[in-house]
Amino acid sequence: MRKIAFTAVLFALLAAAANIHLVGADTGHAATPKTKTTHSSHPKTAKATKPAVAKPAAVAVAVAPQPVVVTVQSGDNLSSIAASHGTTAARLFDANGFLDDPDSLHVGQQLRIPTADEQLTHRVVAQPAVVAAPKVVLASRHAVAPRTARPASYPSLAGNDAKSFIYSRESGNNPNATNGSGCYGLGQDCGGHVRATCGADYACQDAYFTAYANSRYGGWGGALAFWQSHHWW
């Protein structure tokens, strides 16, 4: 019995000693911790930062305003169109160089309305050409044989009344009248000068025949007196 008890105590001591050795081995392992390697002694090189590229600023493009154009309608004139668009007839005429006469517009024409601050060159309205009185060629007015005189009784007239009498008898006061012999115009010129110089222009013909009457007969009264005697002049 004593032998069994002694064996148990010895076994307990051996077990205790083995446990102490294991604890010491664990404690020693903990006492020598591993040194953790750091990379603080080898710093990484910082990457170079690319500079920011500035974007170009937007460029404003100026857009020219579209011109205002109107189409001429029936009954329109420069004054009415100008008043409708806040301008004047003179500026409207200056802005449209194709217009020759400010008083003559045609339906369908297109007119540009000038802006208020537009600088325009003043245009002068072209004046009609003045036709000078033609040179009278007395020797050739009667290129054909004169008509046979017929006796008649006529009133005594002078000036414009005498002229009107001759014109009415010669041509019916028609500047384009032509008789069977080819004589032409208000006073029936038979030499072709009135037709070539004046055509059917009344004022030009009147100047021609007045100059002829003054030069040959001393005026329309003398021309009428001759016409009443000879029925031609």
Q: How is this structure best summarized?
A:
The protein is mainly α and 233 residues long. Helices cover 38% and strands 3% of the residues.
pLDDT average, as an integer? 76
Q: Count every helix, treating DSSP H or I runs of 4 or more residues as helices.
A: 7
Unreliable residue runs = 22-32, 147-153
DSSP, total strands: 2
Global shape: rod-shaped
Helix content: 25-40%
Class derived from helix and strand content: mainly alpha
Strand order of the largest sheet: 1-2
Element-by-element helix/strand order = HEHHEHHHH
Strand content: under 5%
- Taking the alpha carbons of the first and last residues, their distance comes to 199 Å
| Rg (C-alpha, Å) | 62 Å
Reported for the largest beta sheet, the result is:
2 strands, antiparallel
